Amino acid sequence: MNALRHPFPVEYKRSIPAGPLFHNVNRVLELENLNTICVSGKCPNRGECFSRGSLAFMVLGDTCTRRCGFCAVKAGRPDAVDPHEPERLARAAAELGLRHVVVTAVARDDLADGGAAHFAACIRELRRHLPAAAIEVLTSDFNGSPASLDAVLNAQPDIFNHNIETVERLTPRARSRARYRRSLEVLRYAKDFSPHPPLSPRETAQGAGRLKTKSGLMLGLGETSNEILQTLTDLRSAGCEYLTIGQYLQPSARHLTIQSFVPIQDFQFWKDEAFRLGFERVASGPLVRSSYFADQLHTSVQ
């Protein structure tokens, strides 16, 4: 893979904010020995998000069993699962006063369930410590395992996020072990899922179990307009309701090369197209990522 071929557009650049909330997030993460995708994934929005007291937790360690061509998270042989991590995560979320908690994880293909039980434990602990918070999980495809998906979905997150990442043609180059059609099936499965045991009439009336499904797409890897439109169409056909669209940024010379920096006006065009297709919530812009302002995406009126 080649080094970057394009200069970073001026309009993409941002100042790096800090302040008391920024330092408090770092303090709590260090105290509870927790990882975030913000740091491990080299997210360009880390400073901005930490400065407003928001973040995306990354559980199941800091080492991924997959080596995707776009991702900055380190790959290799992970450590054993820490059974106390869900409680530490919930304590941290409570101390930070989060009203919307995003939990993602490295892919754990070394585990029989792909880490699904650990996701479920995180959801349960968050419900115990922060009963009013919205919980969003961003999971791997669990290799398409219905049992693993059931384990996560029965814990009743408010939002189930699984990123399609790129168009079908580019998936084999960008995503290790993942399959485009399997990702669509994962999202469709989550949308059609019914909790077990079934919700009571009171729970249903209170809005419990009304799961929203979400996915994210990167641009700038060489996809065509027709391919983008087809991907958005496929996601809607799978029942996906929330969507994020952002610019791929190459983490290092070892990663996939950026083929283009997408003009800012194109992100507005694709946002409009997504709404036309029926998505309920859309965030689209160069530095948009899956968890970027996830709380506002969930609660905004479009």
Shape: globular
Helix-strand pattern, N to C? Answer: HEHHEHEHEHEHHHEHEHEH
Number of helices: 12
What's the mean pLDDT score? 90
- CA-CA gap between termini: 40 Å
Strand content: 5-15%
Helix content: 25-40%
The largest beta-sheet arranges its strands as 1-2-3-4-5-6-7-8
Specify Rg, calculated over alpha carbons.
Answer: 18 Å
Oligomer: single chain
Write down how many β-strands occur, each being a DSSP E stretch of 2 or more residues: 8
Task: List low-confidence stretches.
Answer: none
Largest sheet: 8 strands, mixed
User: Structural class of the secondary elements?
Assistant: alpha/beta
Protein architecture, described:
By secondary structure, the protein is an alpha/beta fold. It has a domain at 10-214. It is 37% helix and 13% strand. The protein contains twelve helices and eight strands. Strands 1-2-3-4-5-6-7-8 form an eight-stranded mixed sheet. Strand 7, helix 11 (264-277) and strand 8 (281-284) form a beta-alpha-beta unit. The protein is globular. The relative contact order is 0.14.
